[in-house]
Design brief:
By secondary structure, the protein is α/β, with parallel strands linked by helices. It contains 7 helices and 17 strands. The protein has a 7-stranded mixed β-sheet, sandwiched between helices. Strands 4-3-17-13-14 form a 5-stranded mixed β-sheet, covered by helices on one side. A 3-stranded antiparallel β-sheet has the order 12-16-15. The longest helix is centred in the middle third of the chain and has 19 residues, at about 135-155.
């Protein structure tokens, strides 16, 4: 995506890495948060995603594999549901669905070694070593499934991961660069993410504010990719390192990230009961409040305290953490599966007349939506402001996300007016 001149280009929080006396260029102790991202990071890149011939799901872009992608089709006479009495200039091109770029920010504090039913406060020995069914093992397995799902949805989706706190940097150190740098989810990247997760050994405390601020700074200043950008933040606790930084996190960092297009999903696994309100506030400020925003994240909004903190993916009452985590990550991957499509440019000297564009879903023409933003109740399709992308809204978007859906864009025929 095009990078903006951001007010936090030098540091995401007022307390910067460089000004806090941290001598390790990759980590920071609790004395400072935010700041510019340096070089390094264990990147896993290269390789080629499997592809094949044939159409199919619009969930992937390009001409092969499991997805038919986006097709510009304008032939003599109408085509694919679009009828026009005049011959239309014909040219077929393959476009792509806008990809998702996702940085997973994951808690590796010592309590992740505990079983979901264990409380480290009453059973401190549970953090000593991982065991089958531990929160960490459930998280690792769910993440591996999620990476594969994202790769299948769109071969241009990208993901990376960073753990907190940093191993070997004290209980509260946070990392400037991801452990596995964000890259396209081809086979090499998926394997690299899986291999890295196999090396993680939980330990330390829970520096939520510092790890989130660092992740936002990295995404905002060091990821010059097109597509939509997301942070997926997963923790089993509340802030235990610098609670005084929470107001800055909620009032500055998360909203600033959202204002430049970086949305924040939040998952709280068992152990995060005391942090439910904080985690829901992060989700609300990050633009991902659940239930269409019909949720509670502030005790002053409800007399029913049991409802406060249900705006994020709350796993604290889970009876099967592995399954519920997988379902939550599947829900997130479905949300980030974009209904935004590039409008390909015809081969010169042909030009694309924006008034002669039609969109078909599974071979049936859909009408343009009213001039409302998609989230305003519109249904059908509409252009973005620059008429460089086609946006599917409402039921059209829902239907386009189905695994067997195909989306075609037809150039050269007068646009079908709204019903």
């Amino acid at each position: 995506m095009t990078r903006l001149a951001l007010p936090f280009a030098a540091c995401f929080l007022p307390l910067c890495w460089a000004g806090c006396g941290d001598t390790n260029p990759e980590t920071a102790e609790p004395s400072g948060f935010g700041g510019t991202s340096g070089g390094g990071g264990a990147a896993a890149s290269g390789g080629t995603a499997a592809s094949g011939s044939g159409g199919g799901s619009a969930a992937t872009s390009g001409t092969g594999g499991t997805g038919g992608g986006l097709v510009i089709d304008s032939g003599s006479g109408g085509g694919g549901g679009v009828e026009d009495g005049q011959a239309c200039a014909k040219e077929t091109k393959t476009g792509r669905r806008s990809p998702a770029n996702m940085l997973f920010v994951v808690d590796r504090s010592g309590s992740m070694n505990c079983l979901p039913t264990e409380d480290e406060a009453t059973n401190p020995t549970c953090i000593a070593s991982g065991k089958p069914g531990s929160k960490w093992n459930a998280t690792k397995d769910a993440l591996n499934i999620a990476f594969g799902t994202l790769a299948m949805q769109n071969s241009d989706n990208a993901a990376g991961i960073v753990m907190f706190p940093v191993a070997g940097a004290g209980d509260c150190g946070v990392k400037v660069q991801p452990d596995v740098s964000l890259a396209r989810l081809d086979a090499t990247q998926v394997n690299g993410l899986t291999a890295f997760l196999g090396t993680v050994d939980p330990g330390g405390s829970t520096p939520i504010a510092g790890s989130a601020a660092s992740a936002f700074s990295h995404m905002a200043t060091q990821v010059p990719r097109d597509g939509n950008e997301f942070i997926v933040f997963l923790t089993d606790g509340a802030e235990t390192c610098r609670p005084q930084e929470i107001p800055t996190l909620l009032n500055q960092n998360v909203p600033t990230a959202a204002s430049v297009g970086i949305r924040t999903f939040v998952i709280g696994v068992p152990g995060s009961e005391q942090g439910r309100r904080l985690l829901s506030q992060m989700a609300v400020a990050g633009g991902t409040a659940r239930n269409g925003g019909a949720c509670q994240h502030d005790p002053t909004q409800s007399t029913d305290a049991a409802n406060v903190g249900d705006c994020h993916f709350d796993m604290t009452q889970s009876s099967n953490l592995a399954a519920d985590l997988t379902a939550a990550l599947e829900a997130i991957s479905g949300t980030v599966l974009s209904c935004e499509f590039d409008v390909p440019v015809p081969t010169p000297p042909a030009t694309a007349d924006p008034d002669k564009v039609n969109v078909e879903l599974n071979g049936a023409a859909i009408a343009p939506s009213p001039s409302l933003p998609c989230e305003g109740g519109a249904n059908g399709w509409q252009y973005n402001a620059g008429k460089t992308k086609i946006l599917l809204c409402g039921q059209a978007c829902t239907d386009a996300k189905q695994s067997n859906a195909t989306v075609d864009i037809i150039l050269g025929c007068p646009t079908i007016p709204p019903a």
